[in-house]
Amino acid sequence: MPSSSQTLHDIKQNKPSIRQQLHVLLAFVRQDLIERYSGSLLGGAWSLVMPLIQILIFTLIFSKIMGMKLATFGADLTEYGYSIYLVSGILAWNAFSTTMSRTSKVFLEKAALIKKVPMSLKMLPLYIPVSETVIFVIAYLFFTVFLVLIGYQFSWLWLWLPVIYVLHQMMAWAIGFICGVLSVFIRDINQMVDVGLQVWFWATPIVYVLDIVPETMQTLMSWNPAFWFIDSYHQVILYQKMPEMSYLIATAGIGGLALIVAYKLLGKLEKDLRDFI
């Protein structure tokens, strides 16, 4: 396998092949995971520590405090029911929101590389969802250990989790891609994405259960794309039920449509984008 420097040299001199671009993509993933905690004492070990700390906080603290509060609203939750509800939703949301936010900034952050290396701009942002998947898997391994310790009964329904994950990450990446292209020309879009994700988080039943929301709001929330995949995780993990097929189809539809729009938009603006950054 050629070295990263040799691959970059070949790409500079010729039209990059798929193999060369994949090699560079994997190098970006590795670099991204390392740079997250560069300069810290634990380095890459923080990729393990941070999800573990989150899981411990959610399970040991929120299960007691929020679990009791939600019980007063009539929410039917066991001792660790709220922890399972919260962790299964928030880990999915973290992967979704981080992928979308980082992808919306990728062309500006990698401007120096884009000017030097004529690699495909369609391939460049792919390192972000791959990197986020590594973090997600690590966090879910810790979550799974917690479930084993409390005697959780696993079922074949967990086979749906990779499907749900791929669908919501495709949607996050595609929407982020559109924002990323536009943000080169309209810099305020980056701030709008971050603010929008904050509002979107609290508009989605992740830290609260849907039952405590007024019925009129529940109907409105059913049109929230984030609710579709968050509810799918809850159905599989907490309630041991099949995810709602209409939600998965709708998530796939929005993600697929956004992906088509993203690639068409890049096709029309790629030359201007390279000149503008």
Structure description:
The protein is mainly α. It has one domain (45-276). It has helices at residues 4-13, 18-35, 46-71, 81-103, 106-109, 111-116, 127-149, 160-183, 188-202, 215-221, 225-237, 245-276. Helix 3 crosses helix 4 (81-103), helix 3 crosses helix 7 and helix 4 runs parallel beside helix 8 (160-183). The radius of gyration is 20 Å and the shape is globular. The two termini are 32 Å apart. The model is unreliable at 1-13, 40-44 and 71-76 (pLDDT under 50).
**What best-fitting shape do the alpha-carbon axes yield?**
globular
Number of strands: 0
The total of helices stands at 12
Low-confidence blocks of residues: 1-13, 40-44, 71-76
Spatial separation of the terminal alpha carbons: 32 Å
**Main β-sheet description:** none
**How much helix, percentage-wise, in residues?**
over 70%
Strand content: under 5%
- Average pLDDT confidence is 81
Alpha-beta classification: mainly alpha
Gyration radius from CA atoms, angstroms: 20 Å
- Provide the number of structural domains: 1
The H-and-E topology, N to C, reads as HHHHHHHHHHHH
- Regarding quaternary structure, what we see is single chain
Keywords:
73% helix; 277 residues; mainly alpha; disordered N terminus
